[in-house]
Design goal:
Elements (H helix, E strand, L loop, with lengths): L1 H11 L10 H6 L5 H8 L3 H32 L5 H12 L7 H11 L5 H5 L6 H12 L4 H8 L4 H12 L1 H16 L3 H6 L8 H5 L10 H31 L6
């Protein structure tokens, strides 16, 4: 798992790494940081980074809110046709994203959302996987806590945000990390929905280091290393919450 990251970092610190004939020559040659400085200064890299950060952050916040609403309703509320609705959500999970590629693109064209943040954010504000994940987790929570709050006079919004939401912190943390990383690394739909430099995200921007005749490996790997940095930081900060959320309910105390 570590080897590809080490290889990426090694390539990013070499001038013309593709020119070396063996690994020993590559490792013991001179290290440089010019690939990083040139990547940051060229090709609107800062704009790509900003777009990715905005899109991933807003989409993550939207999923936390809407998946919590939907998951709580499916787990606790009596809704007409709830089994059918939940089955529909599960059915969406088995549909490959490539199937909706053309219909979604035509929809974005009709809305006039091509080359805008709307197309990068709004279609992804809620995901069926997130709804399923939150719903399953809420079902494991004791309903007596919510009933006790109702007896004390608490309203439904108070119960949702002050009782249920704190109890869902482990799974919401896992969902937030999953959604952020998925959107940070998303390539297909941002590539389809943007053809202007000002709206490209970081994965899309990095593809322009791939030429028709050659690949600028040094700058590409430097850009990829910078792109991976937020992911590594997030994992290092929240690794305990990730493990706790994934193992919650696996063992009985």
């Amino acid at each position: 798992m570590i080897l590809p990251m080490v290889w990426m970092l090694l390539f990013s610190l070499k001038l013309y790494p593709e020119s070396y004939t063996n690994i020993a020559e590559l490792i013991f040659s001179k290290f440089v940081v010019s690939n990083y400085t040139e990547a940051l200064d060229s090709d609107a890299f800062g704009r790509y980074f900003f777009n990715s950060a905005v899109v991933a952050t807003v989409v993550t916040a939207g999923n936390l809110l809407f998946c919590l609403f939907s998951g709580y309703a499916l787990a606790r509320r009596d809704i007409i046709g709830k089994p059918i609705l939940f089955g529909t959500i599960l059915g969406v999970l088995i549909i490959p994203p490539h199937v909706i590629m053309i219909p979604l693109y035509r929809l974005m064209v009709e809305f006039g959302w091509i080359n805008s943040y709307y197309s990068l954010i709004i279609p992804w504000l809620v995901t069926p996987f997130g709804v399923f994940l939150v719903r399953q987790y809420i079902q494991t929570l004791p309903e007596d806590i919510e009933n006790a709050s109702r007896i004390d006079g608490a309203g439904e919004w108070f119960i949702l945000f002050r009782v249920v939401m704190p109890l869902c912190k482990p799974i919401l943390t896992v969902l937030a990390i999953y959604i952020f990383l998925s959107n940070w690394n998303s390539f297909l739909f941002p590539y389809l929905f943007t053809n202007e430099e000002s709206f490209r995200t970081l994965p899309v921007g990095l593809t322009f280091y791939l030429g028709k005749q050659s690949i600028d490996w040094g700058h590409l790997m430097a850009g990829a290393s910078i792109s991976a940095l937020p992911v590594l930081i997030i994992f290092l900060i929240f690794q305990r919450q990730i493990i706790k959320g994934l193992t919650a309910g696996a063992l009985k105390e």
